Amino acid sequence: MEELNEDELFAKYYAAKKQFKKAKKYLTFNERIAQMGGDNGRFSRKLTAETSYETYFEDAVENWRGEDQGPDLQEFIMAIQVKDIKTYAQLLHRSDEIFNVLCEHLTKPESRSIPALCGILSALARDLRENFNKHCWKSIEILVNLLDLGERVAENMEAAYLCFSILVKVQANFLAKQLKKSFTNLLPLFASSRDFVRRFAAEAFAYLLRKSTDLRSIAGFVMKQSFKTPHNYLSDGCALLFYNTFVGIAGNFHSNSEQLFRDIVHALVHAESEDVEKSEEFHDFCVKILVQMVGYTIEYARNSTNDKRFFYQNVLTTMLGESKTMKEVISLMRLLQPCIVLKNEELMNEVTKKKKKKEKENKKNKGKNELKKAEKVEFVCVAELKKSLENAVKVADFELEQYSVDFISETLLTIFNDDKNRLFSRDIALKIVEKTKNYQTIIELLLKTINLESFDLYMMPALGKIATEIIKNPDNSSLMKQIVSFYSILCSTRRPIRETVDRETRSNFFDLSSHYAFRDWLVNNFKFETRRTLSFEYLIDMVVAWPWLFSQADSVKGSEDILETLLEAIQSSNASILNGQLVYACTAGLYLTNKTLLKKVPKEDVEKFLERQKCSESSLLAFEMFVSVYGVSREVEHMNKVVDLLFPAILSSNGLVRKKVFKILSSFELPLPKIVDEEENVRQQTKSVFEVLYEAEDSELTNFRERLLHLRKLRHDDHKEFIPIGSSEKVEMIIVADMVSQFFVGFSPLWKGVYEVLATFANEMNIDTFWNVLNLWINNVNDNINNGERETEKGRLVGIDQTNRSDFVNARMQLFNFMETIPNVVERRTRVISPLLLNIYEEYMRLTASVVPTIPEAEEDEKEDDDEQPEESEETPSNQKQETTVVLKTLTALLSVYAKFHAAKSVYMEPQILQMYEQLLGSRYENIQKAALSCILSYRNTILANYRENLEALIDEKTLRQTLPSFKLSNDEGDVQVADEHRSVVVPILLRLLSGKLLINNKQKGMISRRNGIIYTIGGCRSDELTFFLQLFFEQVYKVFGQEASFEDIEKKCSKLSFLTIVHIKVFQK
């Protein structure tokens, strides 16, 4: 290929720069070199000097003089007397002087001439060549400061990049001979917090690193220098450096990339620390950088079409097979893991995690939710990996540990989980079991590979062998618990208890011949003497595994002991979730093996247990099995008793719990009433109310119309056809409770249909009964909201009694929205909701107030003397903001209900309610002000009614300024808008609204004129009205200092150390 001269190279670069700059702010080093025409891999072009001037220096000076580059450039030109430098000899003679002056101007803070001065520096370097060697390190120091610490001015960054790239090219031979010193000088760039600076430094030094004849030695030096000051940014910079050593541009790789990659990996895996005590820490530091390097390589290869893009997989796999020690094996397994795992944050360093998080947030904020093609692992060295794994297991000091467990399990699940490789998976697992005696890590490995298709057939014998060895040493309790837990997890995964009980069948899924010893040990441990010493978790795991260790043909041993365990747990006063799950596990085990034994459990004990457990999910599932064993009941008294017992479960936010209740109640065979219509035709429903509700809960949420179809069958009056004869009032209450519990379903199209059906009960049902249900439901929701932050007890069984994460706040808000549709009914029961409204108001005041509770003076001195104070747990701003938003919406919804009442003065706790309305008029939140004004207007004051439209327009920010003249209070021009006889009623309302508007302080356009308009309106107040406003506006300050406080009192209070902990400073900013 014909070589381009330097002028053509730079002309080509500047032409491409104009186009590239439109799309990208910063060019990388490789992109700059590519634009200049150089080869990124070797970059061995020679610079030929052809120009109209004798020197590049003079050419650069003349070119930059024609542009406006600020006074620093002119000062530089005057200082060096550029007219006297026309020849190369003159330039060479004065080179030291020119360089010193140039450095002086380049280091001036906030200089506008940086692009020109960098261009002149690069021209000087091109002219002086070898003679510039003595200035090289100083130049690098200046450019490093510009790139790392300089202002983020695009032109300055571009100029520094270009100058640096030319300097590296011109001084390449000089720098390559002193790579260690070069890296030390560039170290600040590798540790820069600016991503593009680290990337540029890595690409620049990688170009020099490729020229090294001893890459392994230099790589080791880089690690030792970096380890002296370890930092996330520095680690990322080193990973980028090694990555750029073997990659090219446009998806290509260096022609010698395979050897370069191998040398880097070998150097870092075998690198030794200078401090023996920190050798392990240093090794881990090196491997983490290699992992990140591999991560960058994978991302690059994913977008490449190069035939050799997977060379790194081949190198790593080969090196794994060649490993001689376990330390090497673990290191290479850690490097290979990113090749077989698509996404794993644990494999990223902190810098990459932050990048990914920021990208995710940006996409979310921009509304990007594009569908991506399903990614899959591309691993091309499967056969080689088999051999390497076999060789790795043969290493003399082979022993399983966490990294090897993670890699082997991922490999078996991702690469070898198919029909062709089943036998290999079995063989390698058995070899590992034979090789290592660390049973804890073996169990962890088996647990992670539990989803292998061939696990039950090929891996279970290994588990049985391990279990047999473990039970020989019963003193190791941790291993015993781990192996029992493994059996429990395996059985729960393969045969989920809930589904197995529903099928009422038991079929084994693995060969039992290797597990007889463990089975016998398990049965013996159910004896009273042993089980009383075991924890709930341990017992539950044992009971879950027990039925599956016997075939259908075997006589199941231990049933009597399990029955005793069940009776002890069911009769216990312990109401914990773990006790409930133990009862469920024992009941399920006996139900599958010998259900007749369950009849020995008294009904009374089962019912007391259910009541004690407050109808938890596990207790309901156990109760269902007992109901099935006891047989179908046709006694209405028994049904009414069970309805009373199960009613609390209908208030649950868990749809599965409500569904289970209706399934239990559907088992009763009771007659339904016969209905005679007007034409004397007799009809009788075939399904009871419980079956209808079961079908409603069982319907898919996406098909919400089907659910509403079932619920509409139970409108008031129509519901009587479905209620069994002799049923108690509690059955009707169950219908209402289930309707209200639909608000837990997070699907808004369903709610309006529920409003419709629920309204029929609100209007026609006995009001006391109806509100009894609502009161129970509201109390349940409030309890869950108030206890939401507390840690709940965790169960042992997967998928049962899970932590409740329902949106109780939203469910309560939907109930308030429904109440808005039935104000006549709600108005008759304000005794129930008025306390709730005031509680929500207090919560609102707590979240929006500027003052926290004060500390008594007597306690203040004690607190100041204490050196050690417990840290107070404060809510993060984001959580508090979210909580405030929720309370605002809830308060607005409930106020909207009160605004529709016809007799506002007759509501329960009316004086406190009215005072709350008045306080909320001064809120800074527009929706709260609107709702509070509507409530005030519900008093039907004839004077306020005349101002209603203007008051509502005053609250709306869009019409605030246009409405202010409608409330002119001064009569200076004879155009007062509020009549004297109306002022006593209207002005207090007006001032409260305006005080709330003054609390809004943002930087939107027009805020000053808005504030001036409000103050002008307030300025028309009379003296008593103005006093009222000032007391209102400075209410928060009065709470801190008192209304009668003198300046001395205020100064004394402010001087105390605890003052800032008592008061939020924002109260003074407002």
TrEMBL record:
<feature type="region of interest" description="Disordered">
    <location>
        <begin position="855"/>
        <end position="883"/>
    </location>
</feature>
<protein>
    <recommendedName>
        <fullName>U3 small nucleolar RNA-associated protein 20 N-terminal domain-containing protein</fullName>
    </recommendedName>
</protein>
<dbReference type="GO" id="GO:0032040">
    <property type="term" value="C:small-subunit processome"/>
</dbReference>
<feature type="compositionally biased region" description="Acidic residues">
    <location>
        <begin position="857"/>
        <end position="875"/>
    </location>
</feature>
<keyword id="KW-0175">Coiled coil</keyword>
<dbReference type="InterPro" id="IPR016024">
    <property type="entry name" value="ARM-type_fold"/>
</dbReference>
<feature type="coiled-coil region">
    <location>
        <begin position="341"/>
        <end position="377"/>
    </location>
</feature>
<dbReference type="InterPro" id="IPR011430">
    <property type="entry name" value="UTP20_N"/>
</dbReference>
<dbReference type="Pfam" id="PF07539">
    <property type="entry name" value="UTP20_N"/>
</dbReference>
<dbReference type="InterPro" id="IPR052575">
    <property type="entry name" value="SSU_processome_comp_20"/>
</dbReference>
<feature type="domain" description="U3 small nucleolar RNA-associated protein 20 N-terminal">
    <location>
        <begin position="888"/>
        <end position="1044"/>
    </location>
</feature>
<dbReference type="GO" id="GO:0030686">
    <property type="term" value="C:90S preribosome"/>
</dbReference>
